[in-house]
UniProtKB/TrEMBL annotation:
Transmembrane parts of this sequence: 16-38, 50-69, 89-108, 120-137, 169-191, 203-226, 232-254
Lineage: Bacteria, Pseudomonadati, Bacteroidota, Cytophagia, Cytophagales
Signal peptide: none
Protein name, as recorded: DUF4386 family protein
Keyword entries, A-Z: Membrane, Transmembrane, Transmembrane helix
Length: 267
């Protein structure tokens, strides 16, 4: 990702179109590789590997996001290049869609055939998680336009962030992270119990998800005034982290299914 970061549109002189083209080529290559993987390998678990592939494909928008190599520019300078922030949230929208497809395929599979209550509960979690992602990304996608409108009304740009990302918006984000990280823990443990993943997957997912939950709770009580030395926890509030953990789960599912397929061939 550091290599693609050299082409980030945030770097002065770099072409926005060139960055989009590079990300598109990389993504198409990954999609092709995943398609070939399924075409030439056995499906070890009914329904799970296919849905897991959509989690693995989260790497495509994640590469684009982390390749930007810059935090969102929330200053007045944003209005000079609003397309950069739009691109960031387009990547996140794509990630949310992949997450939604994964959830749909999983819930429609036979994994919950005799577990109606669990299916309904997990459906509710998926809907809430997806709804918050969608609302949050739309909210921030429109940030440049809202800032422009704010300034056109003669208001101070310094007051805009406090107005646009007010307490209600932050609290919705907190609720979203609590739901999303809780769902990741649930999925990680559930797949491990089904022997669809190895033990390293839920360990990593649970640890980082708990950090995300702790961060959300801290923000609820102290806003973003983290004690010195705890500022790094802010990373767990950005939307890219839940998607990274979901990608990690996708890797675990595909890795396990590939090994099982090889074992089946050998036997």
């Amino acid at each position: 990702m550091s290599l693609i970061g050299r082409y980030s549109p945030y770097v002065e002189g770099n072409s926005f179109l060139r960055y989009v083209t590079i990300c598109s080529v990389i993504s198409m290559s990954i999609v092709l590789a995943v398609w070939l993987f399924f075409k030439n390998s056995l499906q070890s678990f009914e329904g799970v590997p296919i849905s897991g592939a959509f989690l693995f494909l989260l790497v495509c928008p994640l590469i684009g996001i982390f390749g930007l190599a810059s935090a969102p520019d929330l200053s007045l300078k944003m209005l000079e290049h609003p397309e950069r922030e739009h691109l960031r949230y387009i990547f996140l929208f794509i990630a949310a869609i992949l997450f939604g497809v994964f959830g749909f395929l999983l819930l429609m599979s036979n994994s919950f055939k005799n577990k109606r209550l669990m299916r309904w509960l997990m459906t509710a979690f998926f809907i809430l998680a997806f709804a918050e992602f969608s609302w949050e990304f739309r909210h921030h996608y429109l940030y440049p336009e809202a800032m422009k409108e704010w300034i056109s009304q003669g208001k101070k740009v310094e007051d805009f962030a406090r107005y646009y990302d007010n307490t209600t918006v932050v609290n919705i984000g907190i609720l979203g992270r609590l739901i999303q990280f809780s769902l990741i823990i649930w999925l990680s443990v559930y797949f491990y119990k089904l022997r669809h993943t190895n033990s390293w997957s839920p360990i990593v997912s649970v640890i980082f998800s708990l950090l995300g939950i702790i961060t959300a709770i801290m923000i609820y009580f102290i806003q973003f005034n983290f004690p010195k030395g705890f500022e790094i926890l802010m990373l767990f509030f950005i939307p890219g982290i839940p998607f990274f953990l979901l990608y990690w789960l996708g890797v675990a599912l595909l890795t396990k299914s590939k090994k099982s397929g090889i074992s089946r061939i050998q036997n």
